[in-house]
Amino acid sequence: MLALALALALPAAALDVNDVLALTTADGDTVRGWYAGATPSAVLVTAAGETHAVLLDTVVAATRDGHPLALDRLASEHAAAWATEAAWLADPPPLPRPGATAAASLAWAGAGHAMLGDGAAAAGWAGLDLVLVGTATWALVGQEAWGPAISVLAVDALVRGAAAGSASRRARRRRARMQEGRKLLEDGVQ
After folding, report:
1. Nearest to 17 by CA among 1, 33, 39, 41
2. 10-36 average pLDDT score
3. Average pLDDT over residues 56-85
C-alpha cells in the first residue's frame, strides 16, 4: 500500500502522453497541451486539436501537470523519449496490412488486434465475441429458439464489423506512423 501511495504522490519519471505540458519559449510564447511525442530536437505537444513542435533549444521555462519542470530534466526526458521512439522505428513490430487485420477480425473479433500485437484490445473484442457466440449457441442448442439465436448472431456480426474497422484503422495509423518516423530518420530532421 505504501508503494502505491508513493507512486501516486511522486512526479512521473519520464514524459508520458498523460502529461500536460506548458512550454515557454525565448520569444515569450507559451504552448500548453498534452505531450504527444518527440523528434530529435523538438517536443511535440497537442493543443486545440493541433500538434505543435516546440524546439527544445528555445524553451526557457516548463511545467508538467502544473508543477515546475527543470530544463535539464526536460532535456534528459526528451532524449530518453526520442531514444525509445528511434529504437522502435529501427526495429518495429510486424506491420500486417489493414485488409488482413480486417479479414481476421471478421472471422473472429479481436484477431486483427492480436495480429497488431495489441493484446488488451484483442482480449476485449474476443471476449465479447465469445459471449455472443456462446449465447447464440445456448439459445439454439439448449433452448431450441431460432429467433433469439439469429438476433444474437446479428449483433455478433455487427461486433465483428466494428472490430474489423477498428483493427484496420489501427493498422493504417501504425503504417502512417512508421512512414513519418522513417522519413524523420532518413532526413535527419533536427
Report:
1. 33
2. 82
3. 91
Q: Provide the phi-psi class of 22: left if phi over 0, else alpha when psi is between -120 and 50, else beta.
A: beta
- Long-range contacts, 186-189 (Cβ 8 Å, 24+): 188/40, 189/39, 189/40, 189/41
Q: In the Cβ-directed half-sphere of 33, how many Cα atoms lie within 13 Å?
A: 17
Rounded Cα distance between 58 and 64, Å, is 17
State the cell numbers at 174: 501504425
Joined grid coordinates for residue 116: 497488431
Radius of gyration of the chain (CA): 23
Q: What is the model's pTM? A: 0.53
